Amino acid sequence: MTPPPTCTEAPAADQITADVTPGPAPAAAPPAVAPPAARRAAGGGALVLVGMLLVALNLRAAVTSLGALLDEVRGGLGLSGTMAGFVTTLPTIAFAGLGALTPWLVRRWPAARVLVVAMLALTVGQVLRVVTDSAAVFVLTSALALAGIAVANILLPMLVKQHFAHRTGLVTGAYTMALTTGTTVAAASAVPVAHAFGSWRAGLGVWAGLAAVAVLPWVPLARRARAARRTATRDAAVATSAGVRPARTRLGWAMAVYFGAQSLSGYAIMGWLAQLFRDAGYAPGTAGLLLAGVTALGVPVALAMPTLAGRLRTLRPLVLGLTVFSAASYLGLAVAPHGLAPLWVLLLALGQGAFPLILTTIGLRARTAEGTVALSAFAQSTGYVIAALGPLLVGILYEATGGWTAPIGFLLVALAVQTAAGLVIARPRYIEDER
């Protein structure tokens, strides 16, 4: 049974009924017109969806655009190697630490208002970091931008549960595809934009405009949520949310480990795959295109995976299938990285379908929006702590051995851990039942 809305947002259109006053039938029936309340609710649902997609487009653009321009940023700001390493690790630190605060935020303010502030933080942070000449200020303002992303990461699964409970797979697929698209476009266009305007600052700063656009749909939704709070209470929602403790459950930890292991491999791939292909003999430009191919091929996977997961009684076939794709790609990269590179890229993109799968599973393993945000916060914040180890350990193993056998072996071990956790979360169950 789908729980009633918490009144932080406008209810969905199919949750509204109109009273009909009995009376004599008119001589000619006028054209059917939806009640004003129903029309407002329908519009609200559409506005929430548009707002979610715009937020999703922003969830990695600030990260991947910086990765593409890191050499130029280092030169322009005089970043040391240690400081540059810290900047590349900062996203996972921010996502882990600040994401954990999101349930506390939504217990005190409506989700729409929290998202307005989050997207403003992302906008302002991206603007300020491109107008400074101070390395320290650049890091601090980057952290401000990432704080907005961290909060939005947690809120999107909750909003799916709250507004689109009967279309979880479709809507999760749509926003995951938007996230993947934003990631790919930012990585591919940051350097050309910087070259066109003659500065790395333009290549990073342009994404502040996209973040500012993402604020717009949430402003009217935040006003509506504020008005709704005058006539209803959120005490029951607060009590429910406070009673969900994912850290005390087997399901919560399995979700966190699966999220962390797949994110570990994802960040390691983003950070090191191009270097692997360069070491295999590819030109730098070609190596970059092969890396971009992983995210580009991941777009249809991101769209299809949530819908498929929502239709299956158990996720076991998906968990095992994704493991096979990833293992085959890793082994191929270790044995023949040059000759069959496009095949390994394709298999790697399929294996990275674990990311949209876990985002969908967060919604599938909670009965309520409050349970969803608690599970989302724990799985993502804990998972990003695990993920932070990926690029670091791959780099250490690569430098220590001078090759890719040991780093790929490490990724295979992480994949085994991911698979074990995936088999735990594959069976239908709910976090609220494990309190």
Detailed description of the structure:
With 435 residues, this protein is mainly alpha-helical. It is 76% helix and 0% strand. The chain contains 19 helices and no strands. The chain has helices spanning 36-57, 61-68, 70-77, 81-99, 102-106, 111-129, 135-163, 168-197, 200-215, 218-228, 235-243, 250-279, 284-311, 316-335, 341-351, 354-364, 369-387, 389-401, 405-425. The longest helix has 30 residues, at 168-197. The radius of gyration is 23 Å and the shape is globular. Mean pLDDT is 83; it is low at 1-43 and 230-241.
Summarize the structure.
The protein is mainly alpha-helical. It is 76% helix and 0% strand.
Radius of gyration, in Å, reads: 23 Å
Instruction: Spell out the helices and strands N to C.
Output: HHHHHHHHHHHHHHHHHHH
Mean residue pLDDT: 83
Shape: globular
Number of strands: 0
For the report, how would you describe the main beta sheet? none
The DSSP helix count reads 19
N/C terminus separation: 19 Å
Structural class of the secondary structure composition?
A: mainly alpha
Q: Uncertain spans, ≥5 residues at pLDDT below 50?
A: 1-43, 230-241
Strand content: under 5%
Helicity range? over 70%
Q: What keywords describe this structure?
A:
19 helices, about 425 residues, about 75% helix
Note the topology.
Layout: H1 36-57, H2 61-68, H3 70-77, H4 81-99, H5 102-106, H6 111-129, H7 135-163, H8 168-197, H9 200-215, H10 218-228, H11 235-243, H12 250-279, H13 284-311, H14 316-335, H15 341-351, H16 354-364, H17 369-387, H18 389-401, H19 405-425
Helix pairs in contact: 1-7, 1-8, 1-9, 2-8, 2-9, 4-7, 4-17, 6-7, 6-9, 6-10, 7-8, 7-16, 7-17, 8-9, 8-13, 8-16, 11-17, 12-13, 12-16, 12-17, 12-18, 12-19, 13-15, 13-16, 14-15, 14-19, 18-19
